[in-house]
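seq as requested:
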Amino acid sequence: MKIKCAIFDFDGTLFDSMYVWDRAGEDYLRSLGKEPGPSVREDMRTMSLSQCAAYFKREYALPFSEEEIADGINRTVEKHYFYDVLPKPGVAAFLEELRERGVRMCIATATDRYQVEAALKRCGLDRYFDAVFTCSEVGAGKDKPDIFRAAMAHFGADRRSTVVFEDALHAVMTARADGFPVAVVYDASERDREEIHRLADVYIPDYMHLEDFRAFARGAEHDKKRCVIVGGADIGRASFIRKLLREDDFVVYCDSGLKHMAALEAEPNLIVGDFDSIENPCLPVETIVLSREKDDTDTYFAAKEGVKRGFCDFLLLGVTGGRMDHTLGNISILLYLESLGKTARIADDWSDMEIVSKRPVRVGNEYAFFSLLNITGQAEGITVRGAKYPLENGTITCEYQYGISNETLPGQNAEISVRQGKLLLVKVRPQDG
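struct tokens:
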């Protein structure tokens, strides 16, 4: 992965301007002789301007069109964008650094375009951005991924090479759930700092202290691609599994996993094993011969070796089925890799498996079913949306596994998040797929 594109939020991420919106709704309502309710400020945090207008019209019975209400709110705040708001310290130097590295940049914001463009031009930052995307123009707030997808499509990029810069919890959760790496920028107005920090791929305390981001960027640019570990369990649908492989994968065969080499049409970059179930083929490839008396299985050793070599993304094949003890042991490798902040999944003939913990996960309609299994004790604060069997703030224990065989609703993605604990997500592909 190389960072090619950056999508920046505006208020609170690039500019110290959240104060503009903290009182905007309240000031607008009071200008009309309406006393705002106690939750107005919090309600507005996740809304686009058009959503705010609809909310005010409905909740306060305003005798104006939604367009007129949006214009009124804009008039309440626009002077700040034209004359007052300033970039966070160090922003200009950071944007120049990204530009020198060839990173293309755009803005995705709930603030209206003319206000953003006025502030950018006044502060001399407009030259860094290819485009501005607003929630109102896209037609959805940041509780949905539409604006991030529109920005990515503008670049002709993919999620692996696009980083989203955000400061608000709901936007961070949306971007993460849709598969975007997220750089979280500290903002004093954000209340959910601990949760935001936990969800971030990288955290930026301010633009004067970018050591962690630079390390993250170096790791992204020099990432040794994906590590694919092939075990010795049966692979019945080799033609399907073969399609999961990429040309630049680093492929590790574990002991009898070598029997799959011809079917997968993938040459090994590394072979590991104690060769108790297959003879060492002595291929002209780096081979690590292990003792037969050891704590690690061959597959677990391969995962540790992948971590040692700097891989951040792992795909395990041929590691389920047959002996249940080996299957459960291999599933624990997902927990090991997740604990190190790595991305990992197991794929077999009919399913994909991954861990859900710190980061929200989405399940698409390409899967027939999905199941959530507790494998670490107790998981709390489980939320499942967009599914046939939704769940809000649920708990699943190892003693009562009721999260089996859920289904994504037609035309939607199921969204899964866990506040505390870890779950194994098993996504089952259609039997005729």
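The chain has a mean pLDDT of 88.
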